[in-house]
Amino acid sequence: MIDSQSLRRQLRALRRGLSLATRQQAALAVARHLEFWPLAGAVRIAGYWACDGELDPRPVLERAWTEGRQVFLPVLVGEPPRSLRFAPYQAGAPLRRNRFDIPEPEVASMECLQAEDLDLVLVPLVAFDSTGTRLGMGGGFYDRSFAFPRGANEMGRRPYLLGLGYEFQAVAELIRQPWDVPLDAVVTERALYQFSNAEGQA
Ligand SMILES: Nc1nc2c(c(=O)[nH]1)N(C=O)[C@@H](CNc1ccc(C(=O)N[C@@H](CCC(=O)O)C(=O)O)cc1)CN2
Ligand SMILES: Nc1ncnc2c1ncn2[C@@H]1O[C@H](COP(=O)(O)OP(=O)(O)OP(=O)(O)O)[C@@H](O)[C@H]1O
């Protein structure tokens, strides 16, 4: 089996090599696959600012705004940063670049949510497999931030983790590390995949 670092490097290079037109079409196709999906009834939705060729969640976030849902973007917290908080975000709001050069909302930390306060999280990914195991950029940020026990927030629920990516990021099998937090579903330009990690499923 290919090691995670080589897989990361290969898939990130493929992702960065996509043309703008291909990325835009894929982003719209992903939003279309979610058209009849009720966004899990979510009020508070985290997206991300696409970089490094990532599947752009903006068409999904635009729908969320239209439906009156609240949208958040991840901000790095800690020195050095170890986990994520989620800052309220509206189109056109001021952003500043973090240490990875990814734009974050310029919002006081008091206004930011903790991971467990979200309903739905659109999760960036480098690769995913048929059981919802995710390979990310390698910082462990999503794993650390969503490591709380299932059903841990005050509503007795946990956020629904929906990975967004391209079909070529689907791989046969990733090794699931003890700290890996599995995804509930992944949507690509081709399909919506739901895994048995989702609540209410076997
Ligand atoms: N759009 C987006 N935002 C995100 C993430 C993400 O994957 N995508 N993250 C998901 O966790 C967090 C940031 N995690 C990251 C982890 C590593 C690298 C990265 O590019 N590392 C470089 C070297 C880093 C350095 O300069 O020290 C590299 O691997 O080449 C970037 C982001 C929070 N925000
Ligand atoms: N819950 C956790 N507790 C302690 N360490 C963790 C936890 N989650 C991840 N880590 C550490 O983070 C490192 C990176 O993890 P991993 O390679 O799975 O990141 P990733 O999921 O690809 O990255 P990201 O979430 O930033 O996109 C691991 O080596 C691990 O030591």
From TrEMBL:
Q: Name one GO molecular function term.
A: 5-formyltetrahydrofolate cyclo-ligase activity
Output the superkingdom of the source species: Bacteria
Alphabetical list of Pfam families matching this protein: 5-FTHF_cyc-lig
Under Enzyme Commission nomenclature, its number is 6.3.3.2
* Keyword terms of this UniProt record: ATP-binding, Ligase, Magnesium, Metal-binding, Nucleotide-binding
Q: Which reaction does it catalyse?
A: (6S)-5-formyl-5,6,7,8-tetrahydrofolate + ATP = (6R)-5,10-methenyltetrahydrofolate + ADP + phosphate
Instruction: Tell me its family.
Output: Belongs to the 5-formyltetrahydrofolate cyclo-ligase family.
For the protein in the UniProt heading, the enzyme class is ligase
From which organism does this entry originate? Candidatus Competibacter phosphatis
Q: Which residues form a coiled coil?
A: none
Cofactor(s) of this protein: Mg(2+)
Q: Which NCBIfam families match?
A: MTHFS_bact
- Protein name per the record: 5-formyltetrahydrofolate cyclo-ligase
